Amino acid sequence: MRLLESEAIVLRTYNLAEADKIVVCLTRNYGLIRAVARGARRLKSRFGAGLEPFTHINIAYQEKEGRELVTLRQAEIVRSHFGLTSSAERVAALSYMSELVLEFAPPHEPNEKFYRMFKASTNALADTEHGTQAILRYFEVWTLRLAGFLPDLRACADCNRGFSETETIYLNVEGKLRCVACSAGGQGTKLSYGAYARLRATQRLSPAEFAQHGAHTGAEVYKELAQITERLIKRVLEREVRSQSQLLSYALQAQSQNS
Ligand SMILES: [Zn+2]
Asked: How far, in Å, is the centroid of ligand 1 from the Cα of 125?
């Protein structure tokens, strides 16, 4: 049995037998893994609080040939996110992000870019007080991009002409962006300038910067972005992600408080 080490983020845990837990986490070096943590539910467990959801940890685990489930040997906390759990909105945001990770990250397939983006997004969520909706939109756009499902944001899908930041762009049913001429005079969903500029901004900023730069962006722009990303994600998964409807209701609440 090989001992493997990696940085990881806990996505969720399940109880197993009397004293154990199954831990699902995204690792930097090996992608998504499911590990048995023996004795994790005992009072004096060697894992301590390291297996709480969304904790960033350094892990060591062993795998057996032909088995998907691995055995966790060590979990050392790099950063815990206890602070986040005091806000219902941010707990919902983290659960939703975890669900997307589970949907988009295939087991045992490392994707360092995706790992770093997820890590930066959870840190941004912890460090930015009012940026939850912005960070979620950022996370969705990059999840789609790294999985190969984000339409080209720079040019029309049909004629390849580069878009200017002030022209009217349409998202068609196939999830492609097109210019007025190619969309038969405007078939599809029209993007506002604000939403398009924010979409482009995801490509050059970190999640924390994106939230900061967008602090004065109106809630209606984030709502529009949420509708766009929701459509693109639904196309890929062919269904709704569970906590999305709950998050949209938070977004609507925030909007009614702002206006
Ligand atoms: Zn075109």
From this structure: 37
